[in-house]
Amino acid sequence: MNDKTKRSVWLILVFLIIATVSVGYYLFNKGPVDMKQSRGININAMALYNAFISDSAAAQKQYSDKILLVHGNIHALAVNTEKSQIITLQTGTDGAYINCSMEEDSPGLTPGVSLTLKGICSGLGEGEPLLGIKGDVYLSRCFVIK
């Protein structure tokens, strides 16, 4: 190799190392997603649950780790062990719900009310078929849109 070729190879190598370190630094420090400003996939609670029941692998690929805007009717309100509000949405299937862990409490909600929640889908939870318990679809970091 002549000197000009060696120099070019070293410059390219140094550039690639700097670019790799820069991208790594950015990804490490970018922080969590701003849920309120992010767009989401619009879907009905019943359609979301049916997608996971009919083809779990395809639904996992399409919805898991994505921000969703889920429309549905409230089945129940609860508080978990971390003192966070939990809202379950009806899916049209008895014993199966969209389970939403709220980012902040939403006072004044009652069962039967129709609303839209925005949250990150983590997929279908395990049920207990022998006991007749169906799995729920879980959303985290949720908040009420309307």
Strand residue percentage: 25-35%
Structural class: alpha/beta
- Secondary-structure element series: HEHHEEEEE
Radius of gyration, in angstroms, nearest whole number: 22 Å
The oligomeric state is single chain
The largest β sheet comes out as: 5 strands, mixed, barrel
What is the fold's blueprint, element by element?
Elements: H1 3-29, E1 41-44, H2 45-54, H3 56-63, E2 67-79, E3 85-90, E4 97-102, E5 114-124, E6 137-144
Parallel strand pairs: 1-2, 4-6
Antiparallel strand pairs: 2-3, 2-5, 3-4, 5-6
Helix pairs in contact: 2-3
Compose a concise summary of this entry:
The chain has 146 residues and is α/β, with parallel strands linked by helices. 31% of the residues lie in helices and 33% in strands.
Description:
- The chain is α/β, with parallel strands linked by helices and 146 residues long.
- Helix content is 31%, strand content 33%.
- It is built from three helices and six strands.
- A five-stranded mixed barrel has the order 2-3-4-6-5.
- Strand 3 (85-90) and strand 4 (97-102) form a beta hairpin.
- Helix 2 crosses helix 3.
- The chain is elongated and about 75 Å long.
